[in-house]
């Protein structure tokens, strides 16, 4: 097992989330929106409903959920060039937006939304690690609000949130910020449901292979962390 004698740079306990807040209605023109703050990471998530579906779903009586993800140029320490200026999206951007879309499609009965497309836009305002996890967690709130507005709340089949965990000098820890993430020996992202389901797990050993026992410790931490995120989501929806 990894040495647990070290301390986290933030001073948090190994099983402690960063401070989380979710503000709904931030984008007043969208069918659903949520500004999620997870520590120093801030992501604006919006949901747009359109009466159309991709060509492969026409006349099949079901809808579709897709996602787009991006970072503002100064979301990070140095300015990043807008991908629109480069004329193409990076592989990282494409991978993250596909993850967001997969995660949200897994919690919706697409037949119950009819032939409509719901686009989830996740724009990172400030990045301090865990942007994909914050995007999924915030996008679920925006999606819930959009479905409610469209009187399709019954299409929602599960509550979804995501959190990162990793193996660091402080041992197995929950909800990595940028400093921890950039130096972790192993980095994992867990997309889980409130009823105990697993949608997706991404895990990478950065230094040397990690052990099964370490993986299950990371999963235990992820369950603790997402339980707190589910509470934050519910609180946001109650006050929407």
TrEMBL record:
Phosphate binds at residues 92, 130-132. The keyword Signal does not apply. It catalyses: tRNA(n+1) + phosphate = tRNA(n) + a ribonucleoside 5'-diphosphate. Residues 16-146, 159-223 form the Exoribonuclease phosphorolytic domain. GO terms for molecular function: tRNA nucleotidyltransferase activity. It is an enzyme of class 2 (transferase). Its EC number is 2.7.7.56. It holds the Pfam family RNase_PH. Keywords: Nucleotidyltransferase, RNA-binding, rRNA processing, Transferase, tRNA processing, tRNA-binding. Phosphorolytic 3'-5' exoribonuclease that plays an important role in tRNA 3'-end maturation. Removes nucleotide residues following the 3'-CCA terminus of tRNAs; can also add nucleotides to the ends of RNA molecules by using nucleoside diphosphates as substrates, but this may not be physiologically important. Probably plays a role in initiation of 16S rRNA degradation (leading to ribosome degradation) during starvation. Homohexameric ring arranged as a trimer of dimers. Belongs to the RNase PH family. This is Ribonuclease PH. The gene is rph.
């Amino acid at each position: 097992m990894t040495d647990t004698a070290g301390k986290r740079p933030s001073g948090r306990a190994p099983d402690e989330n960063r401070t989380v807040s979710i503000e709904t209605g931030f984008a007043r023109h969208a069918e659903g929106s949520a500004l999620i703050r997870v520590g120093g990471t801030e992501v604006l998530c919006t949901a747009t409903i359109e009466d159309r579906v991709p060509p492969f779903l026409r006349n099949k009586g079901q809808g579709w959920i897709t996602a787009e993800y991006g970072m503002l140029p100064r979301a990070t320490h140095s300015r990043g060039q807008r991908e629109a200026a480069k004329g193409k999206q990076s592989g990282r951007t494409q991978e993250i937006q596909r993850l967001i879309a997969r995660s949200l499609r897994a919690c919706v009965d697409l037949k119950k939304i009819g032939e409509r497309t719901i686009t989830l836009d996740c724009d990172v305002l400030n990045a301090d690690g865990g942007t994909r996890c914050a995007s999924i967690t915030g996008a679920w709130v925006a999606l819930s609000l959009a479905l409610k507005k469209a009187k399709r709340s019954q299409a929602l089949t599960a509550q979804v949130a995501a959190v990162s965990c990793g193996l660091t000098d402080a041992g197995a820890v929950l909800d990595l910020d940028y400093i921890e993430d950039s130096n972790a020996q192993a980095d994992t992202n867990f997309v889980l449901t409130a009823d105990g389901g697993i949608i997706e797990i991404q895990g990478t050993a950065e230094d040397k292979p990690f052990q099964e026992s370490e993986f299950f410790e990371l999963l235990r931490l992820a369950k603790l962390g997402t339980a707190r995120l589910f509470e934050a989501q519910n609180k946001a929806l109650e006050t929407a």
